[in-house]
Amino acid sequence: MGETLQSVAGFSVEPLDKSFGAVVRDIELRELDAATFDDLYETWLEYGLLVFPGQHLSTSEQMTFARRFGDLVEELKAVHISNVKPDGSLRDAPDDDMMKIIRGNMFWHQDSTYMPVQAKGAVFSAHVVPKAQGDTAFSDMRDAYDALDDAMKERIADMSAYHSLVYSQRAVGEETKKNDSEYFGYGMDVADVPRRPLVKIHPETGRPALAVGRHAYGIPGLSDTESSELIDELNRFAVADERRIYQHRWSVGDVVLWDNRCLMHRACEWDFSEPRVMLHSRIAGDPESEAAL
Ligand SMILES: [Fe+2]
After folding, report:
1. Which of 118, 174, 221, 290 keeps 20 to 30 A from 199, CA to CA?
2. CA of 108 relative to ligand 1 center, distance in Å
């Protein structure tokens, strides 16, 4: 951790010892005045990832907080990402579609890139955590882009890739069967597969970020083999340096806010015989800047 900074509005910001991210304390997310929110928004844009320990927000408080950053994705205003069924029993069947999505999301990705408009960000909080593991990892795609050599920057400057959740689930052997499952099928039925640039310019900061992840495939102009080799290479490169990766070990009550326009993330393994209950609120992207090509 770096030196603690005090914001204008009074909360403290402790930068992670990474290329991104900060821990924010001395703030009550359930009662932010306008000036504090403005200051927090600027802090979010700068660090990309903010961690708020011990907030213990209720579902409605989390939605109210997330809603200040933009409209919420209709289907994902407050969803449990969890291996616990509504009746309290554990999802442990290998063919449970919810578990297939959870296992798929253990590979690096950005949220909703497979939708016509990708997500702006998310608020994510811990409600039940396993004794060990079950972390969430984040990677800084601004730093990844900056670290590419000039030849690669030039090579990918005008490239794009298709993004599909059907593709990415199949690629890791976790195809869902949406007709006979409790998974509600978000993202599994996109008629026009979106195509997105490999280099995304952040609409608010202007910083370029590498944009690949597990949903990306089929770069136009390349063969399937060339395309998957390049995407694999970029995905490996993006997470090859510890300084641009942060893995959060959850405590109950923690809240995390991330900028989906410049970070990738992934769920980390845990023992599925233990419950893990997380609450996810997805902030919708601005169609002006987050729409597909
Ligand atoms: Fe995700």
Report:
1. 174
2. 8
Distance in Å, CA 230 to ligand 1 centroid: 22
Q: How far does residue 135's CA lie from ligand 1's centre (Å)?
A: 13
Q: Is residue 264 part of a domain?
A: yes
Residue 292 lies in a domain: no
Cα–Cα nearest to 50, from 110, 138, 111, 134 = 138
> Per the structure, how many domains does the chain have?
1
For ligand 1, the distance from its centroid to the CA atom of residue 78, given in whole angstroms, is: 14
- Taking alpha carbons only, the member of 248, 249, 253 closest to residue 29 is 253
Strand partners, 209: 200
The answer as to whether 140 is a domain residue is: yes
Q: Give residue 281 CA to ligand 1 midpoint distance, Å.
A: 11
For 4-39, what is each residue's pLDDT tens digit? 877 667 899 999 999 999 999 999 999 999 999 999
The answer as to whether 50 is a domain residue is yes
Q: Determine the distance separating the centroid of ligand 1 and the alpha carbon of 209, expressed in angstroms.
A: 17
Show the domain range for 177. Answer: 5-286
Give the distance (Å) from ligand 1 centre to CA of residue 37: 25
Length of the chain: 293
- Rounded to whole angstroms, the Cα distance separating 267 from 233 reads 21
Please give the distance, rounded to the nearest whole angstrom, from the Cα atom of residue 6 to the centre of ligand 1.
31
Summarised one tens digit per residue, pLDDT across range 37-92 is 999 999 999 999 999 999 999 999 999 999 999 999 999 999 999 999 989 999 97
CATH number, domain containing residue 109 = 3.60.130.10
Ligand 1 center–CA 30 separation, angstroms? 24
Closest listed residue to residue 279, CA positions, set 56, 96, 118, 115: 56
- Alpha carbon distances (Å) from 253 to 15, 48, 51, 59, 130: 20, 20, 11, 12, 14
- HSE-up (13 A, CA, CB side) for residue 107: 20
- Distance (Å) from CA 119 to ligand 1 centroid: 10
